[in-house]
Design a protein that fits this description.
Layout: H1 4-10, H2 15-24, H3 39-44, H4 61-68, H5 83-100, H6 112-120, H7 138-143, H8 150-159, H9 162-168, H10 184-190
Helix pairs in contact: 1-2, 2-4, 5-6
Length: 191
């Protein structure tokens, strides 16, 4: 099956084409592809603005998807990662690439996909990332590894100071396996 919303999200297509796909195939926003990703997972792992320049009034791909289905911001992918975790990983890689080229300014406020996801799902800032054995909250994810981005880490901490309290109390930030997650192993066992 061709998944037009997934394809329009992955491609650097005009926003008007994505808007049309969302109008015609709104239910596709909550459908998983062969890799068990929603369109929001694809958008979170991509640049905020690729090829098609955004003016101040035009929405980004992420904003269009969030407006169409805000609850998808809280649905994990096959690795139990929320869209914000994917967006933070992309932001770290982008920061590292630009820093090596000498084109990145430190102290830049959060923007792009991370900002949009924070606005639509602030509770995701306290949800641990499933890829790292359910150990890292978003602020920790931003500050770890070779591509760490301490500016992003600091800004995430400013937005969700309760995440630090939760970690300090050695409690879980939140359950990483939401009930809306589709588990292919469980489905095979039921068949």
């Amino acid at each position: 099956d061709f998944m037009i919303v997934h394809s329009a999200t992955a491609a650097s297509c005009p926003r008007s084409l994505l808007r049309l796909a969302l109008i015609l195939y709104l239910d596709a926003v909550a459908q998983r592809d062969l890799k068990l990703r929603l369109p929001i997972h694809i958008a979170a792992a991509r640049p905020w603005n690729t090829l098609w320049k955004l003016d101040e009034t035009e929405s980004s791909v992420m904003e269009l998807l969030l407006k169409a289905s805000p609850e998808t911001a809280e649905i994990a992918d096959s690795e139990y990662r929320l869209p914000i975790h994917l967006a933070i990983d992309f932001e770290k890689k982008d920061f590292s690439r630009k820093r090596r080229k000498g084109r990145y300014l430190l102290g830049r406020p959060i923007h792009g996909n991370v900002q949009a996801l924070m606005r639509f799902s602030p509770q995701s800032l306290s949800t641990k990332d499933g890829k790292h054995h359910g150990m890292l909250c978003p602020f920790m994810l931003a500050g770890c590894g070779n591509e760490c981005n301490f500016t992003l880490c600091y800004e995430l901490l400013r937005q969700a100071p309760e995440a630090v309290r939760n970690v300090m109390q050695q409690s879980r930030c939140s359950d990483i396996r939401p009930t809306s997650y589709f588990d292919p192993v469980q489905k095979r066992q039921r068949l």
